[in-house]
Amino acid sequence: MNSDIGFYGMAGSALLVLVAIGISVWQGLGLERPLVVASLRAAAQLLAVGSLLSILLDKDTPLVFAFGWLVIMLVFAVWTARNRASEVPGIVPLALVSFGAATIVSLGLLFGLGVYPLNATTLIPLGGMVMGNSISATVLVARRVIDEFTDKRDEVEARLALGQSGREAARPYLRSAIRTALIPQIETTKAVGIVFLPGAMVGLILGGVDPIDAVRVQAAVMYMILGSVATTTTVIALGLGRQLITSDLRLLRLSRAR
Amino acid sequence: MVSLFSLVKVCLVDGTSTILKDITVEIPDRGISVIVGPSGSGKSTMLRTLNALERPTSGSISFRGERFESLDVRQLRRRVGMVFQRPTVFDGTSGENLLVADPTLDRAGLITALERVGLPPELLDRDARQLSGGEAQRLCLARTLVTEPEVILMDEPTSALDAESMHLIEHLAQEIAESGVRILWVTHDRAQVKRLATWIGRIEGGVLVDSGPASAVGHAHGDDGMWRTVDSAEGTEG
User: Fold this and answer.
1) Which residues are CB-contacts of A201 (< 8 A; sequence separation ≥ 6)?
2) Are the beta carbons of A249 and B52 separated by less than 8 Å?
3) CB contact under 8 A, A154 and B88
């Protein structure tokens, strides 16, 4: 299969947006304008990123620019997490540390073990995948922690009242939040290949790569995402747990996550 | 004689509302002291400040002559135990609940802890969440007792229980007080105050309006005057 669909092909695929608009009109959803705006915005963003990537991925472009792009992605990921979980106290520093930790651990292992060669072509997409998946995990675990500490406030305070340290009192509820946040990722990992074919693999197969080679790449990506999500959720949960219990061992008053 | 708790001009402001206003009181180091007042009067908040679960905005609190600031909060909480309004059991068996308070207890120690509050040893391996309300509250009391506190703060501990369980908990509190552990009990229940209190502190709108030995506080206001505001809060929490 030819992987280059060209602008004509891209425009042709946009006919599917017309289907969505048609449904909106038919059902009176009033979503025609948002659909058009979202589709045009996506195309513009992707074209802009594509142009930038074609410069960054050029063999003659120094690797430092790829690292610079990684930092920009990190800032954008933190900003997105802040917007999606603004009710979580200290979300900006927490997200910054957790995304940073997840990126360093995941990419450090992949490049350190030589799974992928370190260059702009590998660094940017892998970094993007780590951070993209970390955003959802961050929002999920942060909200779970807030919910746990709100629902089980009596229990946390009863533990503190027994003379437990903040870490001891928080541990059962942080553990529960981390488990809840990790289970969807584990389920996704289990279902891969049977229920759905993940994006990286589909992209490679559409690009004409042998399916077995595509599977190897996908497996490495899945493990990387699993590791980075586990890192992110743990850093966020532990960091948030420390913030919610004061230094004089009182549980802060919380407003429930939306 | 040094007071059990000494509060000097204790204020607690939460946002724009003042929960406790200039509370100055000496709570005696004997028997069962009862803080009584209507719903929202600040009596539970006052109790929580004594376990350091709330921090006063201003003023000072001392426990047996030692200022709170000079005490390690975890040590303080082992000395000043607390039982909450709703039975607050943790996941796991009754035995595991007791081990949260003292992980060094062996099986014999766990059984002794249950028996101290009149619970049978066979409950040790029972899921704590399957216990009745009365059993769960007694387990919470047992859990607090294994930290060997010098005083137990009891925040309306019987308000969620049936009459039989209420009398059991009251009886246990009296036994514990006789064994030398002080009790500071918060309630809005007039009859309960009469049954338990050796000392009464009456709180209204965050202000301590009266305090003293049970007989003296009752006489000073006449029985009706003493209870008018308290009765209005029956069935609600403070």
Assistant:
1) A214, A215, A217, A218
2) yes
3) yes
Task: Walk across the sheet containing B5-14 and list its strands.
Answer: B17-27, B5-14, B58-63, B66-67
Q: What is the ipTM of this complex?
A: 0.90
**Alpha-carbon span A254 to A245, nearest angstrom:** 11
- Write out chain B residues lying below 8 Å of A247, CB-based: none
Q: How far is residue B126's CA from residue A108's CA, in Å, rounded to a whole number?
A: 48
Distance CA A120, CA A57 (A): 5
Return the minimum-mean-pLDDT range out of A127-136, B108-117, B147-156, B166-175.
Answer: A127-136
**Structure tokens belonging to residue A64:** 């430092």
**Interchain contact, A160 vs B88, CB within 8 Å:** no
The answer to whether B73 contacts A165, with C-beta atoms less than 8 Å apart, is no
Q: Could you report the per-residue pLDDT of A209-257, keeping only the tens digit for each?
A: 888 888 888 888 888 889 999 999 999 999 999 999 999 999 998 766 5
- CA distance linking residue B135 with residue A1, whole number of Å: 71
Least CA distance to B148: which residue of chain A?
A162
**Rounded to whole angstroms, what are the CA distances from B105 to A160, B60, B95, B124?**
19, 36, 9, 13
**Would you tell me how many other CB atoms lie within 10 Å of the CB of residue A113?**
8
Mean pLDDT calculated for residue range B20-28? 96
Nearest-CB residue to B77 (from A155, A161, A251): A161
- Taking alpha carbons only, the member of B194, B23, B100 closest to residue A169 is B100
Q: What is the pLDDT of residues A158-201, one digit of tens each?
A: 999 999 999 999 999 999 999 998 998 888 888 877 777 777 78
